[in-house]
């Protein structure tokens, strides 16, 4: 929900506007449950759940409304909730602030609006919320809960002890998984979050990358790039991109003939050569061993399309059970391989057709075609284009970052490496979506500096800022 909110904000629909819609929906539910003139007690907590009800109070002119704020106004935790409190103060609305549980008096209302806690609840209800919850449960009033009954975990439906016993819940945007088992009526209200906030990647998607302060070396991925042979820059770009996208370790397995050159690009890479000047079947057993201890493998950058190299990719994937990003020439073997591995395939439109997939000039048609083809393959697809389409055969995401300057060579290797690093820490669909978003943003930042003259290494430098969400 937090991710969708941020994406909505980036699309020009800020949280305060959503709160106005939520409050409006709460007021509608009140009108449904009580006749004009009825007494309504709005019990508001200090977060945005409370804020929703403070808005609702403004919409209930035909009712006898008393607002109980649990806590001093200075302790309201968000600006948008505080602004709505200030609006009630300015309007001299009937209101009380409850600074300790002894000071809470619900009165004898016809209807209670429970807006103490929503999705922000942590642990058992503290005071004065606990006292207020008991008073609400003891009263004979009809109880309308905002978003979720206070004290109930919206994801699981569990309560850590006491929770409000509601007659009806008005929840927002989408059903919450935890509400299904509650013994009360649940109404889902649309609050104007654009569908695009869920379809298109946005800054909210970056929330998935938040790191645990307690993390250790290796927690963020040990990534192996298998490639090189005819090209040496591609595997080096992919591996460096994995590091820039947050991986702790990036290794390259490449032919001995090019290993020195690959190492020469960066001292941050761990390079391991195998005999000869290109990948072949004889290398597969060692590669499988080496890959088994890694979190993700990126297959393809600079590998070339020699028959023996493609045969090796086929044999590797057939025996591999981990997570792999498959790019470039390696893509063509994917449709014919029966593998246990979790694959993220990163074709451009031409490579997609070579894999047997269809494409279309219209992005909405393409979205549907990519979803179907991903379902057929049983793998995640990231189909590159002006609009990148990502699908695991079920969900679809579309990425709009990036610019025409990125048609330069090497940007695909940067994307594949980033996808490898992210696949080490996120589910495949999210890894692909965030990689596409970050790579495109890095390209946009690079275009600011270099326009159509940007090169792939410019993206490497800007990938950390792009994945942090810095403004272009
Ligand atoms: N897009 C949306 O989903 C929208 C949701 N809205 C509403 O916002 C709430 C979530 O708001 P948030 O501020 O994140 O959290 P809460 O208001 O639920 O609670 C935070 C508040 O509560 C305190 N607290 C936490 N746990 C406890 C406890 N066990 N006992 C006492 N107090 C507790 C904490 O310290 C904070 O002060 C969502 O449910 C919707 O109702 C938006 O308005 C519209 C968009
Ligand atoms: K609530």
UniProtKB/TrEMBL annotation:
Free-text comment on the cofactor: Binds 1 potassium ion per subunit.
Transmembrane regions: none
Protein residues bound to K(+): 49, 114, 150
Keywords carried by this UniProt record: ATP-binding, Isomerase, Kinase, Lyase, Metal-binding, Multifunctional enzyme, NAD, NADP, Nucleotide-binding, Potassium, Transferase
UniProt xrefs under InterPro entries: CARKD, Nnr, Ribokinase-like, YjeF_N_dom, YjeF_N_dom_sf
Cofactor: K(+); Mg(2+)
Entry's Gene Ontology molecular function annotations: ADP-dependent NAD(P)H-hydrate dehydratase activity; ATP binding; kinase activity; metal ion binding; NAD(P)HX epimerase activity
GO process annotations (BP): metabolite repair; nicotinamide nucleotide metabolic process
PROSITE patterns tied to this protein: YJEF_C_3, YJEF_N
Domain YjeF C-terminal: 201-470
Binding site for (6S)-NADPHX: 48-52, 118-124, 147, 234, 302, 348, 413
Domain (YjeF N-terminal): residue spans on this chain: 1-199
UniProt binding sites for AMP: 412
EC annotation from Swiss-Prot or TrEMBL: 4.2.1.136, 5.1.99.6
Pfam families with a match to the protein in the record: Carb_kinase, YjeF_N
Assembly and oligomerization: Homotetramer.
Family the UniProt entry places it in: In the N-terminal section; belongs to the NnrE/AIBP family.
HAMAP family: NADHX_dehydratase (MF_01965), NADHX_epimerase (MF_01966)
Function: Bifunctional enzyme that catalyzes the epimerization of the S- and R-forms of NAD(P)HX and the dehydration of the S-form of NAD(P)HX at the expense of ADP, which is converted to AMP. This allows the repair of both epimers of NAD(P)HX, a damaged form of NAD(P)H that is a result of enzymatic or heat-dependent hydration. Catalyzes the dehydration of the S-form of NAD(P)HX at the expense of ADP, which is converted to AMP. Together with NAD(P)HX epimerase, which catalyzes the epimerization of the S- and R-forms, the enzyme allows the repair of both epimers of NAD(P)HX, a damaged form of NAD(P)H that is a result of enzymatic or heat-dependent hydration.
UniProt-listed NCBIfam families: yjeF_cterm, yjeF_nterm
PANTHER family: ATP-DEPENDENT (S)-NAD(P)H-HYDRATE DEHYDRATASE, ATP-DEPENDENT (S)-NAD(P)H-HYDRATE DEHYDRATASE FAMILY MEMBER
The protein's name: Bifunctional NAD(P)H-hydrate repair enzyme
